[in-house]
Amino acid sequence: MKTDIEIAQSVEMRRISEIAETAGIDEKYLEYYGRYKAKINLSLLSESKKEEGKLILVTAITPTPAGEGKTTTTIGLADGLRKIGKNVVVALREPSLGPVFGVKGGAAGGGYAQVVPMEDINLHFTGDFHAIGAANNLLAAMIDNHIYQGNALRINPQRITWHRCVDMNDRQLRFIVDGCGGKVNGVTREDSYDITVASEIMAVLCLATSRSNLKERLSKIVIGYTYDEKPVTAGDLKAVGAMAALLKDAIKPNLVQTLEGTPALVHGGPFANIAHGCNSVMATKMAMKLGDYAITEAGFGADLGAEKFLDIKCRSAELKPSAVVIVATIRALKMHGGVDKKNLGPENLEALEKGLPNLLRHVENIKEVYGLPAVVALNKFPTDTDAEIDLVIKKCRELGVNAVLSTVHANGGNGGIELANEIVKLCEEENDFHYAYELEGTIEDKIRAIVQKVYRGKDISILPAAKKQIDHLTELGYSNLPICMAKTQYSFSDDAKKIGAPDNFTVTIKNVKISAGAGFIVVLTGDIMTMPGLPKEPAAERIDIDDNGVISGLF
Prior knowledge:
By secondary structure, the chain is an alpha/beta fold. 35% of the residues lie in helices and 19% in strands. Strands 1, 2, 3, 4, 5, 6, 14, 15, 16, 17, 18 and 19 form a twelve-stranded mixed sheet that branches. Strands 7-12-13 form a three-stranded antiparallel sheet, with no helix packed on it. Helix 15 links the parallel strand 18 and strand 19. The protein is globular and about 70 Å long. The two termini are 14 Å apart.
């Protein structure tokens, strides 16, 4: 079978002007980046008179090394909707170079459900992440320069919370000492780097609704604290105008296409742990303006990605989804039932039944906690047996939700037609969308609501350092913001080893910090890495380019 990159390179792409015409985008809104990529001017949002289309979220069960295929399903569903004659636009996150060169690979879909040009999207693309990194590092430079030039704001060098960033997995940069070499070379202090997708500027750009809103959010970014524990912001440092200037093009959504020519907006990519893990609000709104159906996805399982999409992004941008797709594989469910990754092929109904509560809990959350209609997309593998498939369908029906087979990886849009028909039906249903918590409660109340309602945990345990941080943020007036949970993606709990659907557990709150520009409070429940490292055999070792400029080894 062909690799993903071989499939992508075998398909003849249409010029991006044709894709824009398909999407109903006038030429005046396009800024071309070669033949197959373009940025879309933000004025389209205010000037379009078209009624907004239906918004469909694609999420998944708790991820396992066996894989679920969430992005692939998102793309295949969009192609499937086009196959049945629907006007649809897909909105996705941009890949980070870290995973591309590390162990996870790119994020452009897979098999015959991909967005293209796959190589460009996974490598540099239109330079958005570089612009975000430049804005991030400009702010860092201005912080240290301010201290060097006399420190009129009385910034405490030991309380600087802003880190430099680079879009690469580089564990060497997690903890560094800089400003060495005497007074002329700056103030010596401990520092660190984050990967660019963990920068608050990435989250800010993805939640901004306009250029003026972007600048307003940038100005609120807290970079650290004074000697008397008062917050210092990017606005205090007069950095906002220059940062926004660096982001002048990055703020515009990028237009590309699926292998089948469906218009796709690929824009932004915040960390799904430390931030909210969704593509930009502007790309999502643009997809809704252009299509009668807008398909988007959120990072990790529904307890993280969907929770943040619904409680943070939808609240902030006043979005109301029409339906939710929950992606699952029988292989992954058997892993949740305790089967080793090496033994997932043979039929094992006992393990599948043990793993199914993970899927069913996610379904219950979407339907009951958030009041949204849902469908399970069962991403089919050749090893899946009829008995295993029948068991999943039966258990889902007992919860009042349909499970539909998806073969988009092998068959593209044709493999997503059944799922597309189910989504069209669900979008016509009335829904009672609501959030898991309201903003008026205390920080502790909101954390507890997520843990008890979404994770189904017993309670929370707040460590003394975290309690002190909560009290400080409350005193500073930040308690009315939504919560962005940072926890392992591999379990409903804060313990990655508790697979399936654990209950009666307590979630330990270790640290709490403010992302005032993004507009949420980050709650850390474990050792979340904001700078990943490369594996023993990184994917970078297998990537190459020939004399004709053809890239190989990407996946």
